Amino acid sequence: MFLVLRPQAKADASCEALKNAGFESFALPAVHINILSTQFNRPRRISAQRNSQQRNSQQQTSLKASIDELANTHANTPINTQLNTHKYDVIIVTSTYTEAFLQQRLANIANEKTHFLCVGKTSAAMISKCLQKINLTAKTSVAQPENSEGILAILTAINVTHKSCALVKGKGGRKLIEDYLAQKSDYTDIFEVYERVTSLRPQDINDVERLPIKCIIVTSVDIAEQLLTHFSALWLKARIFMVASQRIYDYLLAEGMTHIVLADGASSSAIVACAKHLHQSGVLDDKGE
Predict the structure, then answer these.
(1) Which of 106, 119, 116 is nearest to 158 (CA)?
(2) Is the dihedral of CA 86, 91, 97, 103 positive or negative?
(3) 136 and 112 housed in the same domain
């Protein structure tokens, strides 16, 4: 049996995909998602280290002045309609949880020359829907594999040295992408539009540890951290971990977990493909387990 640790909707989707492939699974929503109010969606700007300190200072001052001017000019207008009307060369979308923000702001930050980079196919489908609503056609690329490392591969290929970028993500996440853009892009505006909140309860943990779990599916480092914090170390070390990225793999390995397999991203199709590989290789002795 697989234990799927994801936000509720994605956990349910992954469990359904596993069920359709003949595998038993149990969904445990380790986090729930809070969409942040648009008043907190002011961008945080980062720029390449090669740029001079003077240029960074000028950009920050210019951004602050623009925001202050807009705030003074439109004091009675909702703040989310005021901020940032810059059209970016590249917009990186990390999750479907960014949809509410994009539906509201996409016309202000993108045009037909904008290149969208999506962590997964579901995010790409969401972007397509948002673009259709504003009658805009733009290039969209999906990371391969569907994780942060896949996004870095695209960023390297398209060369963002002289490009303006926007990274639309969850609060505190995707540091690998952010660090790369800080080194390589002309400048990048960071929009943090949702946050993950721990939702594990002691009773949930007790219930799960009684189940015949053989493999634990982990799709982010923060969920891995919660797993190690709340579950018995002995119980965890007796299980196989299926992880969605090399970063999660390395984190669990450093924490003493030894039975780890790397899936080709966090999509349900990637999870099912990895589950089939585990079964065919004899690691899981039957599909029910």
Answers:
(1) 116
(2) positive
(3) yes
DSSP designation for 37: P
CA distance 198 to 223: 9
Is the CB of residue 87 less than 8 Å from the CB of residue 114?
yes
Q: Which secondary structure element, helix H or strand E, spans residue 242, and what is its range?
A: strand 240-243
126 and 191 co-located in one domain: yes
289 vs 23: CA distance, rounded Å: 7
Both 7 and 70 in one domain: the answer is no
pLDDT confidence of residue 80:
39
Sign for the CA dihedral angle at 184, 185, 189, 193 comes to: negative
Are 58 and 115 in a shared domain?
yes
* Pair (39, 25) in one structural domain: no
- In 3D, which of 166, 169, 180, 173 has the Cα closest to residue 138? 166
- The rounded average pLDDT for each run of 10 residues, N- to C-terminus, in the chain (289 residues) is 91 95 92 77 76 51 53 38 70 94 93 95 94 95 92 96 95 91 95 87 86 94 89 94 94 95 91 95 68
Of 146, 166, 197, which residue sits at a domain end?
197
Rg (CA), the chain: 21
What phi and psi values does residue 216 have, to the nearest 5 degrees? -110, 125
Residue 87's nearest CA partner among 115, 55, 51, 48 is 115
Q: Do the bridges between strand 2-5 and strand 215-218 make them parallel or antiparallel, or are there none, so unpaired?
A: parallel
